[in-house]
Specification:
The chain is α+β, with helices and mostly antiparallel strands. The chain contains 8 helices and 7 strands.
């Protein structure tokens, strides 16, 4: 480590000629290289661009900095409020999506709920695996015609949740009302894999619900595989939605922490600027033209300059 004797030292005689209250470098002796740099600096201070756009007194600069940091803090406050509201809304929307998904999964586990239609007979059928946990898609359900027992009166195909709706129109109901019809389930190839004799009792404006559990077999293998795939996809979707809520919450907290930190930093600078400025520097404007101090400020600056010169000459 360098000792204090080896550190850079200034020649007090040189700096004693410099008036720190003015934008000039007159009277400061320097070697050729330094002189060239000082000449460029002097030209900068005397240039019209500097005089018109950059030169300012310390109180003015302090006031401008204070205003800039206060304005920046206002913008940060607005950003914080907006970010807080935006993230809250996104989290709320995601939670609602999660709730709707859970409701859809729950609803899919039950047969479709129907409303009565005048003169029409309806059956809400659900075909499941043996445990009743999986609805089996792609199977054909039929109500047989009591007038022609080997012919189907109406038929439908189960959806992804194993549900199907069979509707007997009003004109057919009038012809067979009060009669019982067989109900049967066929695989995708049209082979009967389950039959319930007399399960459909045809009545005008009547609704019935049937849940048909089927034992595992070669005929239901494809349907069960499709049902398992559907359940897996829904479970993954539910996990993704739940993870999205957590991710949004973490992103919200991180964003707000960042904005709060920047606000705290700004406030620390504002406090420092306010505590270091005198009443006159906070409320008054100094008139500086062409590098010369205003008359009312010149004595104070001259005294300050004398003190600086005296300090260097000790």
């Amino acid at each position: 480590m360098l000792s204090t004797d080896d550190m850079l030292k200034f020649n007090e005689e040189d700096w004693g000629q410099f008036d720190f209250s003015r934008w000039h470098l007159d009277g400061l002796p320097a070697e050729s290289d330094s002189a060239a740099f000082l000449d460029l600096a002097q030209k900068l201070f005397q240039s019209p661009e500097w005089q018109e756009n950059f030169k300012t007194s310390l109180p003015q600069l302090q006031s401008q900095l204070l205003k800039a940091y206060k304005d920046d803090s206002k913008q940060l406050e607005a950003q914080r409020t907006s970010a807080d509201q935006d993230f809250d809304q996104r989290v709320t929307n995601t939670k609602e999506s999660n709730a709707n998904l859970a409701k859809a999964i729950e609803a899919a586990a039950a047969p479709i709920v129907l409303q009565p239609v005048d003169g029409v007979y309806q059956i809400s059928a659900k075909v499941t695996d043996a445990d009743g946990h999986l609805g089996l898609p792609g199977l054909i359900v039929q109500i047989m015609d009591p007038r022609r027992p080997k012919s189907a009166l109406v038929a439908a195909v189960t959806d992804v949740d194993g549900n199907a709706v069979l509707t007997v129109p009003e004109d057919a109901v009038k012809e067979i009302e009060g009669k019982n019809s067989d109900f049967q389930v066929l695989d995708g190839a049209g082979k009967v894999i389950h039959k319930i004799a007399g399960a459909a009792s045809i009545r005008s404006s009547q609704i019935e619900t049937r849940v048909i559990p089927l034992a595992d077999s070669a005929a239901t293998k494809v349907s069960k595989a499709a049902a398992l795939d559907t359940r897996s996809r829904r479970e993954v979707e539910a996990r993704i939605v739940a993870a999205k809520v957590d991710a949004l919450t973490q992103a919200r907290d991180s964003r707000l922490r960042d904005l709060d930190s920047r606000l705290e930093q700004n406030q620390a600078i504002i406090d420092a600027l306010q505590s270091s400025s005198s009443p006159s520097t906070r409320g008054e404007d100094t008139n500086v033209k062409n590098g010369e101090p205003s008359p009312q400020n010149e004595p104070a600056k001259t005294d300050a300059s004398r003190r600086r010169k005296g300090r260097w000459k000790k």
